Amino acid sequence: MGRAGFPANAIGFAIGLPLILAIGGLEAFRPMGLSLPALTGGLLTLDTMIRVGLFTIVLVGLNLLMGYAGQVSLGQAAFYGMGAFFSAIMTVRARTLGIPPALAEAWWWPWLVMLTGAFLVGLTAYGIGRPILRLRGHYLAMATLGLGIVVYILLRENLGLPHLNLTGGFDGIQGIPRLRLGGLLLWPAWRYYFLVWLFAFGAIALGLRVVRSRVGRALRAIHGSEMAAESVGVEVSYYKAQVFGLSAAMAALAGSLYAHFQTTVIPATFGFGSSLELVVMSAVGGMASIWGAPFGALTVLLVQEVLRTQLHRVIPNAQGEFEAIAFGVILVLIMLFLPEGLTTGGLRWLRSRMGLRPR
After folding, report:
1. Residue 1: what pLDDT?
2. At 59, phi and psi to the nearest 5?
3. What is the pTM of this model?
4. From CA 297, how far away is CA 89, in angstroms rounded?
5. How many CA atoms lie within 13 A of 169 on its CB side?
């Protein structure tokens, strides 16, 4: 991206930050009785925007892994779930684990757990990634899919320790505490919204920093040709494992934030379907674009909401299978006309319409 990419990134922050602040302020103060659902006909809610922020954190890491390093992952929801359950277990099951109540009830304990969980999940992914990422193409896809299935089964089966009931099995864990800053409870939802988007913009800034760094240049070289990258001295296995670990740590961080937002986590949320949905969001927003993360998440969630609420007007008595078909058709159309995703493809189309040469 270099110097040419800087203005676009500055514009992204200049537009994105005020917009996010305006949405949060609207929900916090409700000027003249206005609210986000009222202004969007119920299409957008604060809950949806919080989820967009959470998925943005995950997708920035996934885009670095898939879009820049060219490594396919069909198990990213596993790391999302590992972060969520780590926070849930270390707070709700603290007594079972022998953690002193004075420590577990401190306001800073969930924050420490969140950061520790992200670090441990990232470290685990780095270790697992060293052998797995030697695979390529559909073999790598199957390996990451298998990893996701293993994590899902472990969560569903109480980590193989049914007598401790650490994950709650199929029912999951309820009663996860809300986050606090000293005596300030980060709730109602608009307070948590600001927290999530603070992390989301931090993830975007980190992603842009990585892309512009020597690591980013190495990742693009690996994506282009691993053999060519090795021939010029790039440690391919090291960089692939490194970005795999980073993407997992970001997913785990988002998972912890999700757990404290929902206050309930169940294994079914983090299965293969969720991993596939993350890949779809990445492709729709643009895999080789850090700014594609929020656009991809928002677009997919909006399309799902429109189909859920409006499809019955077009097809009376429409059931879930019709929603899935319509969703698939829309995604095919997006990929046909904007194969590079909404951000890169949209900007390229806009420049062509304006008579500007692409950078």
Report:
1. 42
2. -70, -30
3. 0.93
4. 28
5. 5
**In this predicted structure, what is the pLDDT of residue 336?**
82
pLDDT value at residue 221: 95
- The DSSP string of 19-46 is HHHHHHHHHHH-GGG--HHHHTTTS--H
- Cβ neighbours of residue 144 closer than 8 Å, sequence gap 6 or more: 72, 73, 74, 75, 76, 132
Read off the pLDDT of residues 137-177 as tens digits, 9 standing for 90 and up: 889 999 999 999 999 999 999 998 998 899 999 999 999 99
What would the two tokens of residue 93 be?
Answer: 């099951």
Two tokens, residue 310: 């409006």
Per residue in 12-32, pLDDT (tens digit) is: 899 999 999 999 999 999 998
Q: Answer yes or no: are the C-beta atoms of 254 and 51 closer than 8 Å.
A: no
AA identity, residue 259: A
**163: Cβ contacts below 8 Å, ≥ 6 apart:** none
Show Cβ contacts of residue 207 under 8 Å, excluding neighbours closer than 6 positions: 60, 61, 63, 64, 290, 293
Q: Rounded to an integer, what distance in angstroms lies between the CA atom of residue 322 and that of residue 350?
A: 33
Q: Which tens digit of pLDDT belongs to each residue from 204-217?
A: 999 999 999 999 99
The 8-class DSSP code of residue 315 comes to: S
DSSP state of 289: -
- The Cα-based distances of 111 to 87, 90, 172, 181, 189 in angstroms read 9, 11, 21, 9, 18
